[in-house]
Write a structure and sequence with these properties.
By secondary structure, the protein is an alpha+beta fold. It is about 55% helix and about 10% strand. The chain has 18 helices and nine strands.
Amino acid sequence: MTERPSVALSFAAQFQNALAKISPESPPLTSDASKPLEALALACPLYAKHLLKHPEDRAWLHGPTEASGPLHISDYKHLWQNYIKKPEASLEAKFSALRQFRRLQSMRIAYHEVNKRYSTEASMQDHSTLAEFCIQEVTRYLHQHFEAKLGTPWLHARQASCNYTILALGKLGGQELNFCSDVDLIFIYENDGECHKEGKTTLSNREFYERFFQELRSILHTKTQDGFLFNVDMRLRPEGKNSSIAKSLPFTENYYWSRGQTWERMALIKARPIAGNKELGEELLETLNPFRYPQFLSTSILNEVAILKQRVEHEALRGEDPTHNIKSGKGGIREIEYITQTLQLLHAGKNPFIQCTQTHEALSRLHRYHLLTQEDTQMLQSAYSFLRSVENRLQMGHETQTHNLPKSPKEQARLAQSLNFKDYSALEETLNTIRNSVHQCYKKFFSSKPYNAMQEAWQRALSSDILTS
């Protein structure tokens, strides 16, 4: 049997000693208070270290209304207003405080999840709301600063200021964010024009928003002594990673209608506006709805998605053992998402009820309309919850973005115990059973050796010396 880690066994005593140093009159921890702290310390060494250094932050673990479920944006606004001591502080001071606030809230969410006060779904929803709130706050502070410095972006045609919106895709779009998930964002401004300050033209709307969004991205993912907010991934934007990050609304619409590819349809399934002018974002998605959910789409799309999956897996794994990666390996999280989103692509154009961003809910709706069997639906939902709970434990331990199972016996034991398995072998056995079931379901829809006409043409060209002559 794998050796069990001992960190949680002594944490309550360590915490009591740390608390006594700042509050000598504090009563001893009861058993009911100690056990949840020990569970957090076992699953999250980083948060355990923080609590020993700042024992007063234990008060944050319970939240404003203990065990009442995931917080709403309004809850975070209230907590933030009470946390920030000087609302008139500099931008740098506000962002520093917001990074500290984010870590405290992530610690609270982890505390609730490891002590089974939150389901995995509730944990992901709360973390998504936290990210949405933080992005809204940074955006609000920063836009005010940029307008004061550079002027107001203006639309001459309707004599009004130029709005902007931020779309979330991926896990944040689906309200399924992990502890260290990237946030997939697309930045959009309303239209081209010029900025005005004190009656003078300063720069174009495009230049304004390019600078604004670049700074926003930097603030969100920059790591400081106070931690960081969220890793930002913008590769899903129109024209990809080598293009400008600020896209006008007309350009965005035209891009998807003229050049949009299958993977971009799939990405937009999870899109939702989270900051800036949300109405602008909703209008864009409504315009693009026939692109996201086409009325008619050939089942050849299944082959295209299978090829896409192979390419993404190759890039994600980069020679690593795929059995260690619970996201991209066989029977992993991606296979569940590919099944769900491809069925939505094929059928949601004709049946709008199937249009939704959350994986669990989408699976239920697909079953309701007889596109998945009850057995497959229940298996996929259960597998998705379990794999995401493992992913949460992998990431919350040290606030690192990873999808790989640990190799060291110590970390394996910590992971198994935090998930209530007797040892790592038992966890591994359960994982293998679940992933085999997911992969068998995946193969019902997708070929294990998809036909790739481009690859075949490439091979023919090589063999006939067309490319070397």
